Every structure is written in C-alpha cells, then in structure tokens.
Amino acid sequence: MASQISVVNTNVKIFPVSQIPDETSGGNAISMRWLGQAGFYLKFKDYTILIDPYLSDFLAQKYAGKEFPHKRMMPPPINVEQIRQLDFVFCTHGHSDHMDPGTLPILSANNPSCRFIVPKAEKGTAIERGVTENRMIAVNAGESLKLTDEISVDIIPSAHECKKVNVNGEHFYLGYIITINNLRIYHSGDCIPYPGLSDKLKQFNIDIALLPVNGRDNYRSKRGIPGNFTFEEAQDICRESNIPNLIVHHFGMFSFNTVNPNHLEEKVKKIGCNGLNIVIPDQNIVYNILK
What we know:
By secondary structure, the protein is of the alpha/beta class. It has a single domain (3-290), classed as Ribonuclease Z/Hydroxyacylglutathione hydrolase-like (Metallo-beta-lactamase, Chain A). Helix content is 19%, strand content 27%. It has eight helices and 16 strands. Strands 1-15-14-13-12-11-10-9 form an eight-stranded mixed beta sheet, covered by helices on one side. The protein has an eight-stranded mixed beta sheet with strand order 2-16-3-4-5-6-7-8, with no helix packed on it. Helix 8 links the parallel strand 14 (245-249) and strand 15. The protein starts with a strand and ends with a strand.
C-alpha cells in the first residue's frame, strides 16, 4: 500500500524510483526507503543514513506469551547483515523499536566507520546495546551538529505523551531536523503535539516531515504504551509549521499499536490535502526525493 497525493506550492518532489527516469534525478537526489515502524533508510551521493531502524524480532522474543506479544506484521525489508558502508545511524530515543538491541550490534560490527547519534540521556542504553562510546555522538535538544560538508542536524525535544528529562536536563525523546544538501527533513521520533512545537519547527523551513500516526488512548497508556500523533494531528502540525510534505509512519508493525493504512487512504480522499502533500509509504518501494 502506497499513496502520494501531489499538490502545488512545493518544489520538493517525492516519486517511486520506478516512476522517474534516472537522468532526471541528477547527483543531488536523496533515495529513501521506509523500514517499517519509525525506521527510514536515506542515501545521498556516497552517504548512507539510517533513522530508528528496527530490523530484528527482539520485541517478539521479549514479550512472547504476554498481553502484547509484539509479533511483526511486516518482515524487515532489508537484511541487517547485508548493510555495509553505513555512515550514520540516528536513534530518537531508547525504546527498543527505535534503539534496537537486535540491530545496533550488527550495524556496529559490520560498519566500523559508522557514527551513532543518540540522546545524551540514553547514552548508557546505547552502550548496553552495542554502540561503543568512541563511535557515539550523544546529543541533547537545542544542539546543532555538522556531520559533513553537506549533512547537518538540529535537535529539538519530542514529547512521547510527555517531555522527559533527567537530572542534567537532558531529554530522553528527541526530534532530528536533518539537512542534506539544501533539503530539510524532520523526524520527530515518537511524539505528540506540545506547546511551542509548531513555532519551533517554523524557524527551520522544513521541506518534509516524517511523523508517526498511530495515535494514543487510555487503554494503551494505562498498559505502558505511550502514544503519538493522530493522523489529523500530524497534518495540523505540518500546516501550522508551513511544512509542505508529510510522510507518515509508525503503523503496520504491531497489531495492538497501529492504524489501518486503508483507513489513512480513505481519510486523505475524504478530507483532501488542503495544500499538503501526503505520502503513505510502502516498505517495498524506494523513493527519490528531489528539490
């Protein structure tokens, strides 16, 4: 299932690779693939970036026989053992479907030059999960980081139902605004709307938002499963922040914590995009992003 609703008023184009000639993309195209849940694979020139890759079955093993068994509804689209020449891995927070104990050790072992960007508040967790301290870049909200001449990142807080900080004022949940060449992509990690978020995002002139849309409710919250934006809230955040493109995620992985992609399609058709380009990604499709 994949959907793209094209609109005017944006100079960013997002196309399945099969629908756009190679010669059109040039050397500045960014290739993107959804890995399921909040995970994304980005390729720009010789650089490869992963964000929140959950490519194992760690949670199914951890919660076997429990109320929420965490069985995968979709297989990993990429075999983690085959990922090589990886440059950067971003983890937005310490939950295992974002900082995967079954994925990070393999990526670290097979990609000795890779750097791992993680929240300072979760530095110990990252070390426990196979990231050595000398390969780690620990960051906090409010910081900016230049990774290469063409890739940089600005870090803002996220609220996984709440903002959470440690005694040092370091945030456990982060959002990353990644600038690649002249294109800015915002990955919120797990997040709900919070006061000041839209105003903060407006400052960055973001081109694309990657936002979760599995929502939240008391049933899940009371059982220790904090939630995220609803589909409607994700759209509102983009419109309030002047972000012209929305790619939704965090659905289709676990049966107890998802929304039906067909319902997302129906909502888009029913309410229209109202100036927003909405992409409901398919993990089997590689997309080109052009600006």
